[in-house]
Amino acid sequence: MDALLIIFLTGLISLFLGMMKKPAYALGLNLLGLSVAFILLWNHASYVSILKSYAGSLVYNGPQIYLSLMAILFTGLVLIGGYAMQSKDKSHYSDITSLMMFSLTGGLCLIGFKDFFMFFIGLEILSIPVYVLVGSRKSEHLASEAALKYFFTGSFATAILLFGIALVFGATGSFNLNEIGFAVMSGLYTPALMIAGVLLIIASLLFKVGAVPFHFWNADVYEGSSKGVMAYMSTVVKIAGFIALYKLIKTTFGNLSDQWMYFMYAVIIASLFIGYLSGLKQTSLKRLMAFSGISNTGIALLSIMNGTQSGERSLVIFLLGYGASSLILLFISQVVSEEDDQISSLEGIGYKNPLLGFSLLVALLSLSGIPPFTGFFGKFLLIKDIIQLHPVLGIAAILSSVIGAYIYLRLILLIFSKRTPAEKMSLDWKLALVLITSLVLLFAGWMLIL
Amino acid sequence: MELVLIPLLLGVLSFFIPSKWVKNTSILFALISLSLVLVRLGSFDPKYIEYVFHTGKVFKLGLTFEMAYDGIGIVMLSLSNLVIFLVALANYNKTEANSPLFAGLMFIMQFGLNGLFAAQDAVLFYVFWEFTLIPVFLMLYWFGAKENQQNLLKFFLYTLFGSLFMLLSILAIGVYSTSYAYEAIQYTAIPAKYACWIFTGFLIAFAVKIPLFPFHTWQPNTYSTAPMAGTMLLSAIMLKMALFGMIKWMIGLNQSALTFWQWPVIILGVIGILYGAFIAMREINIRKVFAFASISHLGLIAAGIMVFSIDSIQGSIIQMINHSLIAIGLFLAAGIIEDRMGTTNLREMGGIAKIAPQFGFWFGVILFISLSVPMTAGFIGEFLLIKAIFDFNVWMGILSALTLVIGAVYMIRAYQMSSMGAPTMATFSDLKWNEVSVFALITILAVTLGLYPDFIFSIVKPSIKHMLEAGADTQLIIK
Q1: Helix, strand, or coil (residue A104)
Q2: CA–CA separation, B344 and B331 (whole Å)
Q3: Mean pLDDT in residue range B191-197
Q4: How would DSSP label each residue in A331-357?
């Protein structure tokens, strides 16, 4: 929990550091802050936190520690990978870094929350900086459009969420998750208020993670934002969103599953197929990533439906694989060209630099669920848990991943296409660092389950 | 462990070897791993299961990572290493042989194959099963024909689609079993109403890869656009993964769940035998002739395996070895013709044997081996398989025995159109040393196994017996 404080302070200092207009300093400071936070969180058991008195509202246990570590690690990688592009605007670079730090603070709150106060605060701290980050390319009209769209739809979802929370409070008389869970278990609630409230909360959270039918903002917002911000959104924001959804729906409202089960069935199956099917004809990489992200959302949502209590662990592995692959894809396409994000710009890039080609290959294979990469094990765990209770969902997930494999394989074919002459390309050490770390995650990340 | 890890190391090493040495090193590397497995074969005692990697622990989620081989496993391991060696040797003069990328992919594929044949854990089996697709896909894309994108996508997605059903089945087994270890699954009781569906998943994956008749459409096009070494690897060893899977992971686990599929698979196999043979008779692309011939041969093996008797499985194993040998031989011959004449069209060929007598001789020898003349391994294999199918059902036996006759028609037609008659070309440089030695090695092995098949039988028989007993014992809970 000290980690939370350190990340927030780092963001604050980096905001003031912006006056020096030295992007390198801001990057260094933020990385320092992140690594201190990482180490503190890693050793969380060995010292007593100064924020102990808040322990009631923020509690991190097993998988949530891993998720927080992952969020911190991914933020670091996003900062390093996006530096080359974002630091061009010297006077505003530290704004971007500090916004990411603030948003990460919210993300960590969302991973550890124990009551609805912390949940709501975390969600807002996570989202509001991202609205700004999406619009950070101020000269682009697409970016302004995306930011506005994201802000309006996002605040609408927040309003619905608040209404849902109010209804749940009305039904149970408590904001605390444990107490609500207890009320749900023992039937001490007003059913009509409760069910309406739960469905409103679920709907707004599904909006945050971008599941069908709340997915329309995804493609437009991704297209408008810069690739660094997009990488942040497809790693940290997803992690925080999914874990919040899991904790609320599975843990707290799990006993009400009769009420939301069929709704979630429809949402998951629709997400699995609509995402990939809309992705088939895309020519813009960002839009493709957005749509494939919708299908991956569908797979991650399987964790909510399973009958076991191991959903968080499966989410750790799955999101690790998905995040690492997204980082590789986005940052490599950023190196190729930041402005033009046509898929065709990736043509033949595998021959220009062996590390580039290899990481793209591994990332895409992992996304399509080919073993022995982390992406496969994530899907494997999620489907393994679901197969006994809901075989239909398992089969749907597997069928949709064939469509996904088609999309990703076509990308592989494009990346190694021989038509364009290959001039060699040298890599920035920062990008190489991001790629190698992501590769390690993709090759060895699944070992966390052992 | 060295059996599996050394090919991986050699593969990674191969990427960094300068291209002027790589064709020699790849033969050396293939020899190293071949000798490793032959040492294991020499000291193998058929009565026991030998562990390659053994922890004895069950990790979380029921994963075990055990690797072991029995009689069938060691034969398949030796076969896969032998095939890699023969392919490296056959490929020696091709342009691909100078590419470190190609050699690396080949050894990484060998890593996958060895792991697959040794896997003693269902998840590990699946991981290696899918993993072998990656190197072969890249090999086919980087070194194959220019316009093979569509074929490749079809090949990859088709096989992926099939194997995902196997993944579902493995996951479903995991619901009932304590771990994914082979022995654990073998003695797991699965409710009868699900058992059949669960093993159908395995069957779909294997049927696509073999390929059994209605699932074969990826095969001819992939074979004809792949680089020659890729085609050899695909037909000589990738398909054997599926047949091996049928023996070990279907029959060895649960025969009673498979009795429903016995008739359908045998009928599909027989249809495949006839269908492949009839198309091969009319086909004029020499590679496709051999591709359809391969469908025909493998249909027989698949049908034989589904009879579930010791004889039929023995026959299928020796026929698998034989088919690997002739597949390398035939596709090498096709590759030689293609390289030196620049065409795959049988109608444009003719009289090669007159200009290149050595090639004519060896091509003829391989042809006769593939016709299963007595004293070759194919004779033993086809005899046992057809006998087993006869025992199962006379009509199926008669239909499958037609393979001997029609096989002669298409093979001799291919030989006649390419090598007999008036020469259509001015020059045709004769065989090089490596090509002669591949042909000679294939001939020696096929004839040795034809004269002394007991060498293989003595190794595999105890394992087959054990497997059939264990598989038949599996209990079904009747709900």
Answers
A1: helix
A2: 12
A3: 81
A4: HHHHHH-SS--BGGGGTTGGGT-HHHH
Chain B positions touching A383 (Cβ under 8 A) are: 167-168, 171
Determine the pLDDT at residue A422: 66
Within 8 A of A410 by CB-CB distance, chain B residues are 153
In B187-308 the beta strands, taken as DSSP E runs, fall at 190-191
pLDDT tens digit sequence for A330-349: 998 888 876 777 888 888 88
Cβ neighbour number for residue A133 with a 10 Å cutoff:
25
Chain B positions in Cβ-Cβ contact with residue A416 (cut-off 8 Å):
138, 141-142
Dihedral over alpha carbons A79, A80, A84, A89 (to 10 degrees) = 30
**Minimum distance, in Å, between the CA of residue B130 and any CA atom of chain A:** 6
Which pLDDT tens digit goes with each residue over B247-305?
888 888 877 778 888 888 999 999 999 999 999 988 888 888 999 999 998 999 999 99
Taking the CA atoms of A128, A134, A137 and A143 in sequence, report the sign of the dihedral they define.
negative
pLDDT at B479: 41
Average pLDDT, chain A: 88
What is the pLDDT averaged over residues B163-184?
A: 88
Question: A405 vs B157: CB contact, 8 Å cut-off?
Answer: yes
Closest-approach residue (CA) in chain A for B158: A402
B462: which 2 tokens? 């105890």
Residue of A nearest to B145 (CA): A418
| B61, B142, B160 member nearest A405 (Cβ) | B160
Nearest-CB residue to B134 (from A370, A395, A416)? A370
What are the pLDDT digits (tens) for B122-167? Answer: 999 999 999 999 999 988 888 887 777 888 888 888 899 889 999 9
Angle at A51 between CA A47 and CA A53, to 5 degrees: 110
Contacts of A126 (CB under 8 A, 6+ apart): A103, A106, A107, A109, A110, A237, A240
pTM for the whole structure: 0.93
Query: In sequence order, what are the residues at sequence separation of 6 or more whose Cβ sits closer than 8 angstroms to the Cβ of residue A302?
Result: A268, A382, A383, A385, A386, A393, A394, A397
Q: What is the pLDDT of residue A55?
A: 63
Mutation choice for A interface testing from B55, B63, B132, B167 by most A CBs within 10 A: B167
What does B400-423 look like in DSSP terms, one character per residue? HHHHHHHHHHHHHHHHHHHHSSS-
Q: How far apart are CA A362 and CA A359, in angstroms?
A: 5
Query: Given an 8 Å threshold on Cβ–Cβ distance, is A416 in contact with B141?
Result: yes
Is residue A344 packed enough to be buried (19+ CB in 10 Å), middle (13-18) or exposed (0-12)?
Answer: exposed
The number of CA neighbours under 13 Å toward the Cβ of B370 is 33
Interface residue of B58, B102, B127 to substitute, partner A, most A CBs within 10 Å: B127
